[in-house]
């Protein structure tokens, strides 16, 4: 569709208004492709290059005729041999992708070059891509950059984006984030989703500009709204962490799911992680249970210190010191996450507080109860309650450590 539109605009400005040709153009714009084809075919057979490329475009897209890439290439070639730049470019596309002709990158480069040397921006861009990848021509980043710049200077958005990538990565030129930002923004302002995403990345990382999470989220959203999976995943992460946007797990899941439905592996992993977190006990324990556990634990410690078989103060201090080791490890891991730019999720904070205090304070209470049961000999089965503190420690390690290292 885009190629037809380009041809039609070019024809309107490049040709004298021949009655038959104009009738065909009017019919095409009305969607009457059969009439357009009938008007253009005689002109094309008489050697008119513009009618030839338009017949090629109609065969290429299946407008008014069955889609036939070989027939499209035939008409492109007739127009290209007359030096029509767009036909040369379209013939290059056929050779690059193997549509209507056997795939041949060297032949694609030849036709792109003929069109590019006439200043045709699409061909300049595509020739730059071939030089970047080394397909059909020797890999040459400087030559790729030259062709991208020629197309970018004409306002061709994809070339502007690729030029930004070159400056951001420093391939074939010194790395220059400010120049990368300039070209990304030009392409992003034209609605190129990948350029909008890269602009968001630069704002998030603060590369060449002050770090700005809000601005990063703005550009991610523009790309995500176009269905770009990488941007959808990045926006989901910002909602999950609460950076640049209010923390909102439901919104994070929404964007992860949209990207995951496109088969994007990173989003599928994040979505799975979010679902696992939703099922963790710390997320479903009501607040009154947490408060009750803390009150019970504190009461148990006080009673334990006053009881006959209680720990003496020295034993209790040794227990407290040993208990602080896993707690200290969690705190260090959390500080590392915060310094690396991540935010502790609310569920992590709640989980840590609950299990740290419950594990630290309730242990003496459980142990004291088990001692009393064993001393009285009233129930051998209840002596297995002595395993509860160790089970609590395992749950504490499982629930607290995975969230701190998963990013």
Estimate what percentage of residues fall within beta strands.
Answer: under 5%
Radius of gyration over C-alpha positions, nearest whole angstrom: 34 Å
Helix content: over 70%
Give the termini distance in whole angstroms.
43 Å
Q: Characterize the largest beta sheet: strand count, sense, and whether it forms a barrel.
A: none
Roughly what is the average pLDDT, rounded to an integer? 77
Structural class: mainly alpha
| Total DSSP helices | 21
Give the number of DSSP strands: 0
Q: pLDDT under 50 segments (min length 5)?
A: 1-17, 279-294, 308-312, 341-347, 369-390, 398-407
Q: SSE order in H/E notation?
A: HHHHHHHHHHHHHHHHHHHHH
How would you characterize the overall build of this protein?
With 407 residues, the chain is mostly helical. The chain has a domain at 281-405. Helices cover 74% and strands 0% of the residues. It contains 21 helices and no strands. The chain has helices spanning 2-14, 19-30, 33-45, 49-61, 69-80, 85-97, 105-116, 121-133, 141-152, 157-169, 177-188, 193-205, 213-224, 229-241, 249-260, 265-278, 281-284, 287-306, 313-339, 346-376, 388-405. Helix 6 (85-97) runs antiparallel to helix 7 and helix 7 (105-116) runs antiparallel to helix 8. The longest helix has 31 residues, at 346-376.
């Amino acid at each position: 569709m885009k190629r037809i539109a380009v041809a039609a605009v070019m024809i309107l400005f490049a040709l004298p208004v021949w009655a038959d040709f104009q009738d065909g153009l009017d019919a095409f714009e009305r969607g009457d492709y059969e009439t357009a084809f009938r008007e253009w075919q005689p002109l094309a057979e008489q050697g008119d290059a513009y009618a030839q490329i338009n017949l090629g475009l109609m065969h290429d897209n299946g407008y008014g005729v069955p889609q036939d890439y070989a027939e499209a290439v035939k008409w492109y070639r007739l127009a290209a041999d007359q030096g029509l730049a767009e036909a040369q470019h379209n013939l290059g596309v056929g050779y690059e992708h193997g549509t209507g002709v056997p795939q041949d990158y060297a032949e694609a480069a030849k036709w792109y070059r003929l069109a590019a040397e006439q200043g045709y921006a699409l061909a300049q861009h595509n020739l730059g891509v071939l030089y970047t990848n080394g397909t059909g021509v020797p890999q040459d980043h400087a030559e790729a950059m030259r062709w991208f710049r020629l197309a970018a200077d004409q306002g061709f958005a994809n070339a502007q984006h690729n030029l930004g990538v070159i400056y951001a990565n420093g391939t074939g030129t010194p790395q220059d984030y400010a120049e990368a930002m300039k070209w990304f923004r030009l392409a992003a302002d034209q609605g190129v989703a990948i350029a909008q995403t890269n602009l968001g990345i630069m704002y998030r990382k603060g590369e060449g500009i002050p770090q700005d999470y809000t601005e990063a989220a703005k550009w991610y959203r523009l790309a995500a709204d176009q269905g770009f999976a990488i941007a959808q995943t990045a926006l989901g992460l910002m909602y999950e962490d609460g950076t640049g946007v209010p923390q909102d797990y439901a919104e994070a899941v929404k964007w992860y799911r949209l990207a995951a439905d496109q088969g994007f592996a990173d989003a599928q992993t994040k979505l799975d992680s979010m679902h696992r977190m939703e099922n963790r006990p710390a997320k479903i324990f009501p607040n009154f249970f947490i408060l009750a556990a803390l009150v019970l634990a504190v009461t148990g410690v006080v009673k334990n210190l006053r009881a006959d078989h209680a720990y003496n103060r020295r034993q209790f201090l040794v227990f407290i010191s040993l208990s602080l080791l896993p707690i200290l490890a969690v705190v260090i891991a959390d500080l590392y996450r915060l310094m690396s730019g991540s935010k502790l999720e609310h569920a992590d904070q709640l989980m840590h507080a609950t299990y740290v205090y419950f594990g630290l304070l309730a242990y003496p209470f459980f142990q004291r109860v088990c001692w009393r049961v064993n001393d009285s000999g009233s129930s051998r089965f209840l002596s297995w309650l002595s395993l509860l503190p160790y089970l609590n420690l395992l749950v504490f390690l499982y629930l607290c450590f995975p969230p701190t290292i998963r990013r």
